[in-house]
Amino acid sequence: MTRMKFCGISRSEDVAAVNELHPDYIGFVFWPKSKRFVAPARARSLKAQLAQGITAVGVFVDAPVREVAALLNESVIDIAQLHGNEDDAYIQELRQALSAPDAKSIVKAYVVKGPADIEAARQTSADMPLLDAGLGGGSAFDWTLIQEFDRPYMLAGGLEAGNVAEALSRTGATCVDTSSGIETDGVKDATKMCAFATAVRTWDEANRTTHTTNTKKELNMTNPRGRFGVHGGQYMPETLMNAVIELEEAYDRFKDDPEFKRELATLFDEYAGRPSKLYFAERTTRDLGGAKIYLKREDLNHTGAHKINNVLGQALLAKKMGKTRLIAETGAGQHGVATATAAALMDMECVVFMGKVDCERQALNVYKMRLLGAEVVPVTTGTATLKDAVSAAMREWTSRIADTHYCLGSVMGPHPFPTIVRDFQAVISAEIRDQMLEREGKLPDAVLACVGGGSNAIGSFYHFINEPSVQLIGCEAAGRGIDTFETAATIATGRLGIFHGMKSYFCQDEYGQIAPVYSISAGLDYPGIGPEHAWLHDIGRATYVPVTDEEAVQAFEYLSRLEGIIPAIESAHALAYALKLAPTMRPDQSIVVTLSGRGDKDCVSVARYRGEELSE
């Protein structure tokens, strides 16, 4: 939905009104020439009064880098908004001055007078551009200049309750920024602030879903730096930058190559067993009442999960690049098994990193990987789960770039991985679309998939993003509940951060460190979410819901008994929410649940959860 920023906050009375209305951002102006200027000590005091979830932005005009960095490093502000002559070199210097490089966001303002200003804003290395009429002048500019702007941006300049709806209708801005428009005689006016917030939210309710899902420029916000809105990017050590650049160049070269596409299509058809089946769960539908339930049977793929789609694509790409060795991380083991399978098929060396905890709860998949010829390395650092396996794989890649390709398993990590994995997994939604049109003569009303990093979910969603009639619902692992510390529900509990080479939402502790997470599902036991999912959440196109262990286990047992299909415990999270959703819908509506994998691997874990110990 549309983000809001109330700028020029300088009094406790302003903060009280802000806390009532809860905009996304407030702005402290640190430019001494402004009538809204606040000193850092005053800003620190005002920020302490802010309600949780409201982000503080500092507004600067050609301030020394050290002053801006100090306010960011001390968390007086969370975002720097630059309104002077700051260029990309300044932005880079500022990032280097941060105690946690790139952990804070940077907005660069551009005064829009013509097309050249729009192009400069489009090319900025800042996390987001702000398009303005001038420095606090309270006037608007010609909005027609930004009709084709193709990345997220903030809109400012003369916005107030009476014109903000028109501005949004004409521009579709990601965020609207107001200051003089919520003032009377130069002082913030609580009544005007309320009117502005109401106007934005009323417009959103009537227009935003249709706008964001129908407007191509809103949906194709990935820029050359691999951004999805403010998310994504390449936050990598110098030792790996050449590797990700090499990978990006290779993918750009081969992704549309007819021979590459033909080879991959053959592998999908003859080796993986695609297209996977779309199964009408008749007994489940009848038992629940309401919408028809269809299951997208990725569990029937070779190796028993959706992971083979991405792995075959990446392994083929690695061969084209001249690589002879694949490394991978794995949680539930399905990605590890798929990588070991592709390596065996293509005569490549394979090493899989897996948390020691996951090795124990997914022992069958560990055996399969070794049977297929892969070396499995138990990772004992940290929580000894998926996040630590990713870290270990990245360290290994650093040491052997020349002959090794890191076959990352989800839509996370530095660009171009989120795009590459999504593109290979998008075959899922392409097939769902065709199959539903054939079966029902129309698109599904909702598509549900479980979300950890989010590869099967983005694969299930991708070809429906431009279809506003299709609800997209990602089901996160809530573990023992989002009100506990034993959860992995990132959208429900996380906040913006930098980890594993990307900017996205992550579960963090009070100091901003990545927090330990928990789920009965090893495949969803990850403290973050892919950047494209974070962006889909930001714009309101997809909904992300938490599902507890108990709900997932109940769904695991339910489908086994009713349909004779044992789903992966990851997939059972999506099924659990479908069991709630279907009865609220009409019989002429339909839900597709992606069964990302089969549940053989989870029987011991679920039995143990139910108090039963299995033995050979």
What does this structure look like?
Helices cover 41% and strands 19% of the residues. The strands form six sheets. Strands 1-2-3-4-5-6-7-8 form an eight-stranded parallel barrel. A six-stranded mixed beta sheet has the order 13-14-24-19-20-23, with helices on both faces. It has a four-stranded parallel beta sheet with strand order 17-16-15-18, sandwiched between helices. Helix 12 packs parallel to helix 13 and helix 22 crosses helix 23. About 3% of the residues have low confidence.
Uncertain segments: 209-224
Mean pLDDT: 91
Query: Helical segment tally?
Result: 24
Provide the structure class.
alpha/beta
Radius of gyration equals: 25 Å
Instruction: Name the strands of the widest sheet in spatial order.
Output: 1-2-3-4-5-6-7-8
Tell me the overall shape. globular
Number of strands: 24
Query: What percent of residues are in strands?
Result: 15-25%
Tell me roughly what share of residues is in helical segments: 40-55%
Distance between the termini: 53 Å
Q: Tell me about the biggest sheet?
A: 8 strands, parallel, barrel
